[in-house]
């Protein structure tokens, strides 16, 4: 999130409270022209997600209300990248207020211990049946998509599931910073779950993962209706999700008799401590997963503080080390030492410099980042001095070594992954020239 003289809010998508701002003219040909407005701007990954946020703005909601509506709509239709059962770090910047972070990252189940996965690996090595491979666990070790590798900690199926964090993060944002009810901002998402015209990107996503969906009857019923691949433009229906969202909304209405806050808490508790938590836990436990109703009951999205970079007069905020966000701060600190404008946009030198800076930042991510509740992360990683020490590792004439090998990192001091927050989509790099740890006394 960039903040100069413009008060703005960033919630997964960006919702900006727009003042009178002069923007440079757009010179490049594009199908995404500059959009201008007098009252507000909503940006998202799909036009229908954006429409949900605009609808709430037009009905008197503030930026947080609009942002939450956009998140919930996106959780229904942008399932190739994000879903209602996933996570959503939320950054909020209100006028004359500090940046706040809603830590919407679900924790691993309490049963997801190191011992569990170690015994699972041993059983597989010995050719035995793994302890979680009940008949119901079909496809648990399948790769996410064709050509990808699966690890001993699966990336698909119930065994990979963490606590769904989206709802609690949205409720927390509304409760602390919004004005509308959950039912109001969730209505566009409910309508989209009832059916929306699916686009080419989502169709391709289903196609590449059809073998995974086919292994689970409930997923197959939704994503491959009547056993067939949907076509772009078909009305895609998620009836189960629509019923769930309506049930959450009904719980809020009952609780709202005691006030707005009570209604929001009633909706949250219905999902995390009530009938939905039990259904989720029962399903996971009976299908080879580790997630239990108690894991949902223990979860609470916290309000935290962001990490920050000062980049050429701009303040850049990202969520903390429980996400990959600080890698952007590290990257900007490295890039501040180069004259990117002089290199020329998208010139070979420009692309090389940015790529190598990203590699260094992501190597630190893999070596040091983790859930701060369990892992001590060196604060020096985000300092300008550390960036200056790392910058000489970037060679102007050569790319850094291949990152095909597994990451080399010390075993963590903690003995369990249980209860930790896990960022989705992390890859593993190995930066072999990383002598900075010793030089900078990073432990």
Strand and helix layout:
Blueprint: E1 2-3, E2 8-11, E3 13-16, E4 41-43, H1 47-58, H2 63-77, E5 90-92, E6 100-103, H3 114-125, H4 166-177, H5 182-194, E7 196-197, H6 200-208, H7 210-214, H8 217-223, E8 235-236, H9 239-255, H10 260-272, H11 275-286, H12 293-298, E9 302-304, E10 307-311, E11 314-318, H13 326-335, H14 340-343, H15 348-368, H16 384-390, H17 436-439
Antiparallel strand pairs: 1-11, 2-3, 3-4, 5-6, 6-9, 7-8, 10-11
Overview of the molecule:
- The strands form four sheets. This protein has a three-stranded antiparallel sheet, with helices on one face. It has a three-stranded antiparallel sheet with strand order 2-3-4, with helices on one face. The chain has a three-stranded antiparallel sheet with strand order 5-6-9, covered by helices on one side.
- It is built from 17 helices and eleven strands.
- It folds into two domains: 2-21 and 35-107 and 163-195 and 237-303, no CATH class; 320-439, Gamma-glutamyltranspeptidase, large (L) subunit, C-terminal domain (Serum Albumin, Chain A, Domain 1, Orthogonal Bundle), CATH 1.10.246.130.
- The longest helix has 21 residues, at 348-368.
- The chain is mainly alpha-helical and 443 residues long.
- Residues 1-24, 128-140, 403-415 and 424-441 have low confidence and may be disordered.
- The radius of gyration is 23 Å and the shape is globular.
